[in-house]
Amino acid sequence: MSEKRQPWVQDLLWRLEAFGFDLFIGAVRLMGVDRASDFGGWLGKTFGPMSGAHKVAARNLKLAFPDKEPAWHARILAEQWEGLGRSFAEFPLMDKILPSTGRVEVVGKARLEQIARERIPVVFVSGHLSNWEVMPAAIVDSGVVCEMTYRAANNPYVDKRIKDSRFRYGVRLFAPKGGDGARELLEGMKEGRSVALMNDQKFNSGVAAPFFGHDARTAPGPTRLAIRFGTVLQPMSVQRLKGARFRAIVHDPIVPLKTGDRTADIEAGVRMINAFMEDRIRERPAEWFWVHRRWPNEVYAALAERERVASAS
């Protein structure tokens, strides 16, 4: 059994990691938006297929699009790696990728302006589409006061740098994922602030709702908040146009059901969000974050068994 690191050793390793992070941020910002995005795209499509995550993405595509030809799957995998590489290189430059800089076209801007003007708290929902940081950037750039959930980095020095980077493009209200974050979101909505959450990741204790023909455990938190505060789920999506230029789309609100059966209403809201996400992914499949295990283990096991039988026949 390995011994636990001494606090000073762990702190030194964290500081060294943060120094490397600073070098990366500095290099990317010196490149400028377009060159950094192109470089990130090259890194992604060159090295992404060598990673273990490539197998995860390939399995996910087979589950979501079982009827597509192998050549189609290969093309989507290559495109998603390039887009993912671009997105990671663009994150340190998000203060230069805003609607106000001319790099983001906002479809449905009037809806954001209405939310900002009337101070109506809503629950923004989206997923890891294209460069997903464009969504919070578009929200705050429009003047909406909004709390964003985030998963804190294990390294506290890196976590501070990530927060500082987001502060540069206007994201100033953070709610960490977990119990403390949930309480902050509740307090924020009580005070009239909107909240924004990604709702496309696996959530083991969540609602089992259809997603590409397989039940996927999905967090009920966004729907629960909307029902509790009598507001709407406000979906948004992001599309990459060319290079580091984007389109942020404000879709029609999703109005949660109010039948009196709160559990059933929450489940219905989750199903509507999953359906929204599936529609967006079908429109532009190369732009979703395919490299995480979205479905339960038994779904992947069934896929492996089908492939074993097919290869043996």
From TrEMBL:
The keyword Cell membrane applies. InterPro entries: LipA_acyltrans. It comes from the Bacteria. Its main location: membrane. Keywords: Acyltransferase, Cell inner membrane, Cell membrane, Membrane, Transferase. GO terms for biological process: glycolipid biosynthetic process. GO terms for molecular function: acyltransferase activity. It holds the Pfam family Lip_A_acyltrans. It is found in: Cell inner membrane. One of its GO terms (cellular component) is plasma membrane. PANTHER family: LIPID A BIOSYNTHESIS LAUROYL ACYLTRANSFERASE (PTHR30606), LIPID A BIOSYNTHESIS LAUROYLTRANSFERASE (PTHR30606:SF9). This is Lipid A biosynthesis acyltransferase.
